[in-house]
Amino acid sequence: MRIASIETFLLEAPIQTGFGWSQGWADKRHVGLVKLVTEDGTVGWGEGLYGPSARIVHEEFAPLLLGADPMQRNALWQKMFHLFYNGNVAGGIGGSAISAVDTALWDIAGKASGLPVWALLGGKVRDRIAVYATGLYYTEENLASDGRVIPQRLLDEARMYVELGFTGMKTKVGGLPLAQDVRRVAALRDAIGPDIFLMADANQAYNATTAIRIGRELADLDIYWFEEPVNAKDIEGYLQVKAALPMAIAGGEGLRTRYEFKDYVGRRAVDIIQPDVVNVGGITEMHRVAAMANAFGILCNPHVWGSPIMIAASLHVAAAVPECPPARTPRPYQQEPVMEFDRTPSPIREGIAEPFDQAGGFLEVPNGPGLGVEMDETAVRKLSVDTQKTGK
Ligand code: MG
Question: Which domains are present in the chain?
Answer without folding.
Answer: 3-114+376-391 (3.30.390.10), 119-364 (3.20.20.120)
